[in-house]
Design brief:
By secondary structure, the chain is α+β, with helices and mostly antiparallel strands. It folds into 2 domains: about 1-195 and about 360-410, no CATH class; about 205-315, no CATH class. It has 10 helices and 18 strands. The strands form 4 sheets. It has a 7-stranded antiparallel β-sheet with strand order 2-1-6-7-8-9-10. Strands 11-15-16-5-17-18 form a 6-stranded mixed β-sheet, sandwiched between helices. Strand 15, helix 8 (about 330-340) and strand 16 form a beta-alpha-beta unit. Helix 2 (about 170-175) crosses helix 3.
């Protein structure tokens, strides 16, 4: 489970900003929201991020995705001589001389890990890993080319020399089958799943992958889509003649495919609809093509249902940018409730979304500490804060029984666009 993520000097984040899924202890939870308990911590099953366009919502997702990809791929041979994708805050020249900062805290198998690094375009400047079972202990620290490996991380001894300046030591140790390093990198690969239109246009590979490997889960997906009133009575996945055939692999749990060739070049997703006569009796069926014939909303639902189901079955943290795209608010509400309920979420899964849909600002769906806001400051830098820590100019805090949606649109919390009267633009000469 994700506890918190901190990023600094990356895209619109000039200074360090921390996003947290740790529950604020003095907030009462509605019966509709079940908190997660693990390793003596109370964590949130869901969170939503609001803010004006270009305020930093997607940049937070991109920062999390950069860290994930760098951990997984930094030791790959193909990156031996290549630069690190370094994208510092660009609206202050001094930031081009400062490293970007990334740190994440998470729990896996009841153990808490804190891992982070600083880097620029040419090298990893610092890197650290801490583990806490009873108390937090340092496993290794890297600072300007010098490595200190502690007794709890003997698996890394001797691999300091094999670590390139532009690669992460953690990734190298994992590549050499280090046990602890493998646990950490496995969490990134298996338990942190990120979906954004800027990262990957289609999520459908995930849903297809699950449906082809697991008949029982495939039937569940069909039932979900049917019950969301799409008019679809069956879904068939066919190998496409346009692309390579799908290679079957044995798996004990649903897996999630990484970005690759467009799914429409490999598979055909066919939906079946019943035919009715004038007496409303079923007289046959007709097949539709998911892309050509179904609505954008149905295609989007099919895209999302695989990753959502994966997270719930495995206990992963799912991050979805622009969650509301092409989906009805009531459907969005139902999908989030899957994570808030201990009946449907018994593996401690989490979902983090960005959205502009203010109808989701409902006290029965999100507590104050689950609602986050991004706001662009006068210097162009993004500021990130939760509603539970926001203070009005009077010094008072947001009441838990406030109408979050109405107050947000009124601008009481900031994080909305300030738009001049657009009609005046057309009247000016």
């Amino acid at each position: 489970m994700l506890i918190e993520f901190t990023v600094g000097n990356f895209r619109s984040f000039k200074d360090k900003q921390t996003f947290s899924l740790e529950a604020v202890g003095n907030l009462a939870s509605p019966e509709s929201i079940s908190l997660l308990e693990d390793a003596n911590q109370t964590l949130l099953p869901s969170a939503v991020i609001y803010g004006a366009n270009a305020s930093g919502k997607t940049n937070l997702i991109l920062a999390l995705n950069f860290m994930r990809n760098f951990v997984i791929n930094s030791s790959a041979k193909g990156r031996r001589d290549g630069p690190i994708p370094y994208t510092p805050f660009r609206l202050n020249p001094a930031n081009s001389e400062i490293p970007s900062y990334f740190e994440i805290v998470f729990i896996t198998d009841g153990v808490r890990y804190r891992y982070g690094f600083e880097m620029d375009s040419s090298q990893v400047i610092s890197e650290w890993l801490y583990r806490r079972k009873i108390r937090e202990v340092s496993l290794f620290k890297r600072e300007k080319g010098k490595m200190r490996v502690n007794a709890g991380f003997k698996e890394g001894l001797g691999l300091e020399r094999r670590t390139r300046s532009n690669a992460l030591y953690l990734s190298v140790v994992a590549q050499f089958n280090g046990e602890i390093a493998g646990i950490v990198t496995k969490w990134y690969r298996r338990n942190l799943k990120i979906f954004s239109a800027l990262i990957r246009p289609h999520y459908t590979n995930t849903t297809i992958d699950i449906m082809k490997k697991h008949d029982d889960i495939a039937q569940f997906i069909k039932n979900v889509i049917y019950n969301f009133d799409t008019g679809i009575d069956d879904i068939i996945i066919k190998d496409s003649l346009r692309g390579a055939r799908f290679e079957e692999e044995e798996s004990q749990e649903p897996e999630i495919m990484e970005p690759g060739p467009s799914w429409s070049d490999q598979y055909e997703v066919v939906t079946k609809h019943y035919l009715y006569n004038d007496e409303n009796e079923i007289v046959g069926s007709v097949n539709f093509d998911m892309i050509a014939d179904e609505s954008d909303g149905t295609e989007r639902l099919f895209d999302l249902i695989g990753p959502i189901l994966y997270a719930l079955v495995v206990g992963a943290t799912l991050v979805v940018d622009e969650f509301e795209n092409r989906l009805h608010p009531l459907l969005l509400y139902s999908l989030i409730r899957l994570f808030n309920s201990d009946v449907t979420n018994n593996k401690n899964a989490q979902i983090i979304i960005t959205t502009h849909n203010h109808s989701l600002l409902d006290q029965n769906l999100f507590r104050k500490d689950q609602i986050w806001l991004t706001e662009k400051r006068s210097n162009g830098a993004s500021n990130l804060f939760s509603l539970s820590e926001y203070k009005f100019p009077t010094g008072s805090k947001v009441r838990s029984d406030s109408n979050f949606g109405v107050d947000y649109l009124k601008g009481k919390y900031g994080a909305i666009p300030f738009i001049d009267n657009i009609e005046d633009i057309f009247l000016r000469k």
